[in-house]
């Protein structure tokens, strides 16, 4: 059994999140429920210091400004120097030229370890045709090929989420079938997943594809369990139950309920 949840709950890795204003509270609570230790910090005066002592750094451009991107690059470079894995979520890439070019800037200047987005966002970064409306993106076509192409292009692990999640470093490919459509009815689940992937990367640095796959599987199973508990009620109750499931799920539950293919 892979015991990554146990490792996270024993070591409470510090996860430095530079994320968006919509999901800040949800991300912090989700990471606490998992067992990680979130810190949100943005100022140029401190981001390099924090990023270099963190277990992982999350860069999420959801409510970006050019100044914030400058600070993300500063933090990312400090993380790289200290060997801290950088996880990036290019929220809304493809929706505007600004989001696409700022995402590419980060990927160019920072050594990103794991890139996590929906298919539309990832497609827009490798110039594949995509449909991105605001922060909701989709694309037709082969998601496995898209993920592999992005992984090879940016030399990193790529996580493309959706009904089926694909995780690859360009050669190893995992597909994860766990998850529930209600995860798309609560704002910021994709963004929280970025933080969860960062937490797993903090304890699983030596095998980031595996860490990302385990994070996505755990997250999907929590969504399934939360749906079973709240399907008669609705998505307000689902959001609360989802946090509870992030808190209570064990490595054994994940092993029993995983629907993954390698
Ligand atoms: N149709 C679906 N069925 C099951 N699970 C899904 C479905 N769509 C998304 N998910 C799950 O929802 C989570 C978020 O993925 P999604 O692709 O919606 O991210 P996102 O578009 O970046 O979200 P957001 O921008 O709202 O934060 C993932 O765990 C994914 O597996
Ligand atoms: C709704 C929304 N707008 C910018 S970021 C964000 C959170 C989900 O991606
Ligand atoms: Mg998103």
Automatic annotation (TrEMBL):
Keywords: ATP-binding, Kinase, Magnesium, Metal-binding, Nucleotide-binding, Thiamine biosynthesis, Transferase
Single annotated GO MF: ATP binding
Chain positions recorded as ATP binding sites: 116, 161
Cofactor list: Mg(2+)
Source organism (scientific name): Halalkalibacter krulwichiae
The name this protein goes by in its record: Hydroxyethylthiazole kinase
Family: Belongs to the Thz kinase family.
EC number: 2.7.1.50
Record pathway: Cofactor biosynthesis; thiamine diphosphate biosynthesis; 4-methyl-5-(2-phosphoethyl)-thiazole from 5-(2-hydroxyethyl)-4-methylthiazole: step 1/1
């Amino acid at each position: 059994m892979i015991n990554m949840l146990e490792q996270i709950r024993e070591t409470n890795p510090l996860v430095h999140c530079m994320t968006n204003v919509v999901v800040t509270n949800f991300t912090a609570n989700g990471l606490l429920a998992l067992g990680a230790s979130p810190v949100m910090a943005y100022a140029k005066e401190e981001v390099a210091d924090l990023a270099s002592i963190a277990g992982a750094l999350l860069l999420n451009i959801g409510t970006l400004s050019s100044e914030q991107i400058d600070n993300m690059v500063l933090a990312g470079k400090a993380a790289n120097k200290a060997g801290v894995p950088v996880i990036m979520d290019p929220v809304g890439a493809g929706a505007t030229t600004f989001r696409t070019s700022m995402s590419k800037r980060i990927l160019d200047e920072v050594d990103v370890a794991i890139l996590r987005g929906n298919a539309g966002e990832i497609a827009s970064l490798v110039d594949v045709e995509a449909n991105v409306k605001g922060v909701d993106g989709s694309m037709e076509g082969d998601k496995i090929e898209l993920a592999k192409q992005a992984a090879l292009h940016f030399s990193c692990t790529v996580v493309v989420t959706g009904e089926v999640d694909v995780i690859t470093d360009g050669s190893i490919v995992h597909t994860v079938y766990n998850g529930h459509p209600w995860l798309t009815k609560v704002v910021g689940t994709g963004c929280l997943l970025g933080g969860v992937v960062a937490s797993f990367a903090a304890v699983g640095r030596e095998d980031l594809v595996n860490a990302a796959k385990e994070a996505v599987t755990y997250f999907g199973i929590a969504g399934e369990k939360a749906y079973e508990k709240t399907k008669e009620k609705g998505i307000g109750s689902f959001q609360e139950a989802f946090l509870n499931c992030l808190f209570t799920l064990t490595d054994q539950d994940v092993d029993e309920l995983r629907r993954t293919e390698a």
